[in-house]
Amino acid sequence: MFTGIDIGGTKCAVIVGDENGITQKIKFTTTTVDETIKNIIDAVEKLGANDAIGISCGGPLDSKRGVIMSPPNLPGWDNIEIVRMLEERFNVPVGLANDANACAMAEWKFGAGRGCDNMIFMTFGTGLGAGLILDGKLYSGTNDMAGEVGHIRLADFGPVGYGKAGSFEGFCSGAGIAELGRTYAKEQLAMGKTTTYCKSYAELDSVTAKSVADAADAGDEIAIKVYDTCAYKLGVGVSILIDILNPERIVIGSVFTRSENLLREKMEEVIKKEALSYAASVCRVVPAELGEAIGDYAAIAVAAETYKSR
Question: From residue 153, how far is each of 30, 70, 172, 229 by CA, in Å?
Fold first, then answer.
């Protein structure tokens, strides 16, 4: 059995489980650094450190040194030597990975990437990040920055994601879809027309990826146009990854799992046109399987990989 720690900006969880499932879990609110670390230690003591401890946390961080380095969603977590703290306290191997890499390992070990040696996991949630499994192991890069695919610029102009207009994340994320939805809705409103997901300027701020998806599912032409734009850029971005990394599977989470019906056809059209045919022919693009439980399995996967490598 393994112990996982999922550190988030608003909540944390300590989990016990293995490849057969999650058996125990304690959740609590993320507060100050000292209080949160105390709550983590208390929860681990209550549930047990087991064979190894794995930590999933937003970056930036240094997985090799086991240090959390000022993540934007964790104010005050400046150069926290979390691995050293827990190893000294519990005397078991402790591993640390950023959340995208941890989720990649979770889908690889327990979800849609089982059996693969070369797999890419893409978050496609509020933002767009990726974790890379290459030749049967996680590839995190020289300083844990591998997989930041959301920063790739796909157009000179477009929704802003990852601080860059026209980026992969700008077009392919929940926030990006909402921004596209507002842009297309404003065009309609300027012509005296409306969409079913936005009937006035006052409703622009309430536009979300889900409200646009619901409208597209109901046949709204502008909402369908939003998702077609996203799907086209998704196909372009995925084609780049296929050509560079030659994966056998690309697993995509969150928005893709919920709105695959709006994205797959256009995405596959673009992949067929843009990607090298020999590389594309051996790669399947599939939705993630772990759903809302992925954060729990991500931390457990880090623990399992840490135990295996020690």
Answer: 34, 26, 12, 15
